[in-house]
Each structure stands twice: as structure tokens, then as C-alpha cells.
Specification:
There is one protein chain. With 250 residues, the chain is α/β, with parallel strands linked by helices. It folds into 2 domains: 154 residues, TPP-binding domain (Rossmann fold), CATH 3.40.50; 79 residues, SIR2/SIRT2 'Small Domain' (2-Layer Sandwich). The strands form 2 sheets. Strands 3-2-1-7-8-9 form a 6-stranded parallel sheet, sandwiched between helices. Helix 5 packs parallel to helix 8. The radius of gyration is 20 Å and the shape is elongated.
């Protein structure tokens, strides 16, 4: 039996296009990072083994830029949904801007720049904020610290939990992703037919079945959608409270 949809639950699936409007580069578009760097060299276990100093330099720069960036209107609007809804943000982004905007329940599929971890089979994880990682900076198990980022060839994190959240959501918002990175892109398939499903993007080759497509940048379209959803949620809450039986007669 399928789990019930939770009528007050909103799930947001976000990608690098959302943070691009805060001045952070994406990875795959014409000006993206993978047109400037080789992911084989700076974002793979093989690259780490060959030139760990180059990998650290690449992510130290990413971390510094992320720390200097500020959440944009779309991040802030998504956080504002928590005033009415149970909101789960599932993000491919590693910059921490959702949390800094105020979102309290964020699942990171590809790791976080603000954390480092060792390189043993049972690594410890450390919060480093915006600080760089240096060669010779060790985990307590004696291994070199590396970015807590999912590299090419490594397993995406928290997929089972993320899919369960999408499957029970009454509203699903996809924003800032081209849905070209798997397995993260497959999460849209877990959305239920009865859920309200919205995709916001400037470009999309193929809109997933059942999704309404809004062709716009996130900072413009997300606040407008959130305003409508907040109004709908407030009305729904009022109706629900009126229909609840009183504990005692007046």
C-alpha cells in the first residue's frame, strides 16, 4: 500500500541554477565550471589520488565564493513557506544558501562545502564553515581531510529518504535544475499524480509528466508561487480549524 500524501507537506528539489542568481557559477551551462575545469581532475576519486592539492584548491575557492554569497529572493521565499507548511528542501547544491536563508529541513544529495571529512573507511566529519582545507590537515583518524562533497563515481547521499519525502508531498517544486544529473533527477518520478507539481526554469528540454512549467528565473517566479501557496495554506488552515469538533460544549 502506498503511503498517504501529507496535505501540508511541500518538497522543493533545487539545483545550481537557483544559486546562480546569488552569483555562484553553475556546472554544466555554457559558462559553467566544467567548461573551465576538468571534473576528472578536481571532482573524482582518481583526481584526488593524483593531485589532492589541486582538488583542495578548487573546493577552497568554491567554499570562499559560497561564503561570500547571499541567499536570493527564491531562497528566502522557500524558507518562508515554513510559516504554513511542513517543508523539506532536497538540494543538489553544496553552498549552504538554503540554510542561511532560514530553511530548517534541508537534505543534501551531493554533500556540503561547509564540512570536511577524513578519507578512511569510517571517516569523521567536521564543520569548517568558510575555512580552507590544507594539505597536511588531518582527521583524528590520521587521514588527510577532503571536502565532504560527492564526487563523480561516488554514491549520491540520502536518496531513499529523499524519494520517500517526494512520494508523500502534496506540493512539489522543482527549481534551478535541468534534471540531467542522475540519480538526483529521478526523484521527480516519485511525485504523486494528485500532488501539485511545478517546475521553474529558463530552459527545459522535457518537462516531467504532470508538472506545470513556468519559464522564468527563480528569483522572480518562486516568490510569486510561494505567495500563492501561502495564501492557499492559510485558507486551508482556517477551514480545517472551523471543521474540528470542540472538546467541550460552550
Amino acid at each position: 500500500m502506498k503511503p498517504d500524501i501529507q496535505p501540508n507537506k511541500v518538497v522543493v528539489l533545487s539545483g545550481s541554477g537557483l544559486s546562480a542568481e546569488s552569483g555562484l557559477p553553475t556546472f554544466r551551462d555554457s559558462n559553467g565550471l566544467w567548461n573551465q575545469y576538468s571534473w576528472h581532475e578536481v571532482a573524482s576519486p582518481e583526481g584526488w589520488k593524483l593531485r589532492p592539492e589541486a582538488v583542495l584548491a578548487f573546493y577552497n575557492e568554491r567554499r570562499e565564493k559560497a561564503w561570500q554569497a547571499s541567499p536570493n529572493a527564491a531562497h528566502l521565499a522557500i524558507a518562508a513557506l515554513e510559516a504554513v507548511y511542513d517543508v523539506v528542501v532536497i538540494t543538489q547544491n553544496v553552498d549552504g544558501l538554503h540554510e542561511r536563508a532560514g530553511s530548517s529541513n534541508v537534505i543534501h544529495l551531493h554533500g556540503q562545502l561547509a564540512y570536511a571529512r577524513g578519507t578512511s573507511q569510517t571517516p569523521k566529519r567536521y564543520h569548517i564553515g568558510g575555512d580552507p582545507i590544507a594539505m597536511g590537515q588531518l582527521c583524528e583518524d590520521g587521514t588527510q581531510l577532503r571536502p565532504d562533497i560527492v564526487w563523480f563515481g561516488e554514491e549520491t547521499q540520502h536518496m531513499t529518504e529523499a524519494r520517500a519525502h517526494v512520494h508523500t508531498a502534496a506540493k512539489v517544486l522543482v527549481v534551478g535544475t535541468s534534471l540531467s544529473v542522475f540519480p538526483a533527477a529521478s526523484l521527480v518520478n516519485a511525485a504523486r499524480n494528485r500532488a501539485e507539481k511545478v517546475l521553474i526554469s529558463l530552459e527545459m528540454d522535457k518537462v516531467p509528466y504532470g508538472f506545470s512549467f513556468i519559464r522564468s528565473n527563480a528569483a522572480t517566479a518562486v516568490p510569486k508561487l510561494v505567495e500563492r501557496w501561502l495564501a492557499d495554506g492559510a485558507i486551508g488552515s482556517d477551514d480545517a480549524s472551523m471543521s474540528e469538533p470542540l472538546d467541550e460544549p460552550i
